[in-house]
């Protein structure tokens, strides 16, 4: 290739690349209103964005991949935690995390009720943006350093985590993939919002929600003590009730409810079929 041909190749390649870039840019801007749900940007959402900036939330948190990495990514936080939990958390973060135990403590920003409501509306809008799957997984606030805590039960069996038999403490062997326990495990990790975003299956590891290990023993204990005020008479009924009617009995502690309403999402009874709930119950009770 001589100099003239080389020059022409460079000019044509640059022109084609520039044209492609221009076309993709225009197409992206064409899709932005739909991808960002622009029609849902209300005055409350705009005020919430101003609150986000006024309190410098981005100095610790990330949204859509932008910000600091000192604290969890909040892109999907409203879908993972829900407005009641976030409201109570922002009013008094010290009720949820202890600096000595968890080695972190979000400061009490002294936000007004209106500011809290607005910033939750903003975060809810952010979480509904079509962001092509970002973040790839929720960033847990606690418990992620527990050996095997982020592995599935089947992974732990394969890789030999936990007891000498290859199972984590208290776990039963998982049946084939078409069995209720295995299907329940899949739901635990894929339901919307995902159960694993708030709950750990490791004994004593409490995240946004209490550990779900040993639910059968836990139910028998609260039933015998008179603490339980729900309608369930068996552990299976108790777990089902906790999934489809979470406020029927409130787990003790300010981290899990406020004003007589559980922070647990109330939509599972509508979004999941009876069979799927049965599968979740089977999986959760497989941890003795």
Automatic annotation (TrEMBL):
Keyword field contains Transport: yes
PROSITE patterns: CYTC
Gene3D superfamilies named among the record's database cross-references: Cytochrome c-like domain
One Pfam family in the UniProt entry: Cytochrome_CBB3
Positions of the Cytochrome c domain: 43-127, 179-288
Domain of life: Bacteria
Keyword Iron annotated: yes
Keywords annotated in UniProt: Electron transport, Heme, Iron, Metal-binding, Signal, Transport
Signal sequence region: 1-28
Region (Disordered): 155-178
Designated name of the protein: Cytochrome c
Organism annotation: Yanghanlia caeni
Lineage start: Bacteria, Pseudomonadati, Pseudomonadota, Betaproteobacteria, Burkholderiales
């Amino acid at each position: 290739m001589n100099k003239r041909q080389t020059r022409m190749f460079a000019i044509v390649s640059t022109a084609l690349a520039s044209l492609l870039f221009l076309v993709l840019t225009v197409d992206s801007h064409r899709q932005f209103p739909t991808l960002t749900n622009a029609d849902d940007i209300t005055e409350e959402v705009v005020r919430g964005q101003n609150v986000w900036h006024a309190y410098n939330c981005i100095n610790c948190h990330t949204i859509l991949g932008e910000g600091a990495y000192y604290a969890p990514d909040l892109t999907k936080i409203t879908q993972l935690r829900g407005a009641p939990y976030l409201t109570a958390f922002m009013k008094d973060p010290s009720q949820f995390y202890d600096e000595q135990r968890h080695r972190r403590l979000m400061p009490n920003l002294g936000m007004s009720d209106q500011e809290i409501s607005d910033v939750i509306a903003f975060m809810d809008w952010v979480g509904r943006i079509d962001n092509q799957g970002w973040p790839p997984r929720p960033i847990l606030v606690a418990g992620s350093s527990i050996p095997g805590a982020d592995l599935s039960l089947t992974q732990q069996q394969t890789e030999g985590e936990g007891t000498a038999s290859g199972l984590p403490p208290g776990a039963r062997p998982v049946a084939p993939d078409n069995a209720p326990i295995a299907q329940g495990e899949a739901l635990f990790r894929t339901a919307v919002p995902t159960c694993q975003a708030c709950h750990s299956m490791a004994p004593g590891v409490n995240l946004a929600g209490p550990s779900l290990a040993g639910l059968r023993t836990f139910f028998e204990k609260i039933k015998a003590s008179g603490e339980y005020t729900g309608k369930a008479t068996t552990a299976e009924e108790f777990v089902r009730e906790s999934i489809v009617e979470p406020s029927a009995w409130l787990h003790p502690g300010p981290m899990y409810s406020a004003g007589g309403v559980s922070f647990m999402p109330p939509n599972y009874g509508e979004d999941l079929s009876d069979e799927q709930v049965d599968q979740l119950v089977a999986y959760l009770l497989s941890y003795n």
